[in-house]
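U., I forgot to send this yesterday:
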Amino acid sequence: MSKKIQILKSKFKKYNIDGYIIPKNDDYFTEYSKINRLKIISNFSGSAGLAIILKKKNYLFTDGRYTIQSQIEAGKNFKIINLANIVNCNLFKNLTLGIDPKLFTFWQIKNFFLKYNKVKYINKNLIDEIEKQKVNDSFEFFSLKKNIVGESVNSKLNKISKYLKKNKSDYIFISAPENVAWILNIRGKDGPNSPVPNSRLIISKTKKIFLISKIKKCKKLFRKKIISSKEFIDIKEFTKKILTLKGKNFIIDNNSCSIFFENIIKSKFKIIKKEDPTYFLKAIKNKTEINNMIKTHILDGVALTKFIYWIKNINKKKITEVDAQNKLEKFRKLNKNYLFPSFNTIAGTGANAALPHYQATKKSNKIIKKNDIFLCDSGGQYKFGTTDVTRTICFSQQKNSIKDIFTKVLKGHIAVATTNLKKFNTGKKVDARARKFLKRDGLDYEHGTGHGVGFFSNVHEGPQSITKVNNVKLEKGMIVSNEPGYYKKGYYGIRIENLVYVKKINKKLCFENLTLAPIEKDLINFKLLNSKEKNYLNNYHKEVYKKLSPRLNLNEKKWLKTFIN
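Result:
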């Protein structure tokens, strides 16, 4: 047992608890945070998970993307359980479990733990007492111009005000920082991979706003008169300010309003629990946002294409996974509009690629061998857009069995890209199209086929997604990823990912590719593709060549042209 787990267990008696729950999220419920208490206690580095430390047992809950990784990183001290089993968890009963009320919503506690156990709120975070993480919190928020976002703050506030009046509520508490960013057209640098500003917002039905954050982060907004000092609440003054507001009803969001904040609001107002309407409003990108995302993907496509050309044709040295991801980052940095990665690059060769969300470390870092296949999933935050793209690359002739599987993944990818969205209008319906070619051979993958993507925001952003369970209707302007894959434990991983957006052509909704980068032809068994699929692939590569070739050198252009028949 690790020393940190022993220290945590030694605190149980003091707080009169039988166990303690540690989620992955921070108090803003963001996926990628600079604070990671779950890693401190479990050594698990994935982006989704929750640990429960009991007196005699330890459990780590995580999803299908991390089945192998969680076993490697945390299996020594934890029993690994699928995250789906956290609902009405009955692995233990009649226990009192300690939680930090800033890190959980009432909905989570009720649905996960209260059927068989009790929960005790502890206002000190017990992991912070063991190891406090230092975070640079000095980044100021900044505003985006209308030519970037395409819609004014006033227009967005009108929509929220209308929603409040319809639901007979005086206020709404916007607790998710990405939603605050969208409404106020502001961004920050509080996440390691996302430009979301750590903040919350109160909006009244009369369009009055109160931005809740730290004053040092908002100085630029005051100077530029984006908000006034009267429209600002320092986080320390939140409780006092709530008591001065007039009205009866307050809407809070089940997904991102913590127990801590709900209790404060509840002390004065009647709570109405509804999903924050901002999630859906910002999921439908306007023309300006789509055009900016198109521009962003051309810039990103150039960097990735240069990288693929380099690693396949130019590089003659023995390089590692870390060398490869650093080289790709250098290509992205050649563009002045590039800011930082939209998530930590997944660069896995051979067996490492069989971990869908693998992260190369000093210990795991492998040399990329000529006979391996190499999976690279990466993305960038640019000044006017967010990208996410995966390519699987080979450096030598591969076995027919691997080519056949790659081609079935590609067929699924093409099936998604060419979906008739009138007939298959939800993520659940589209997901089945992606898997059908693998399933014919009894094969599948454990992750979803696609996630929603934000505009210069979080790389994972719903409510839309392409999964076995998502029933959100796909509408014009929504952006999702298209990323079927296949993973053979101990051998290799395959994934092909493009971002697509829902476009209306001749009154019909269809997916249009945003991502522009060649798909590895040396891994395709063309005999398994029908004429429509071959045409799709050829037309896609024509589009890639047309958009990217003006920005490539002569050798890169010649090589890229070989992808077109």
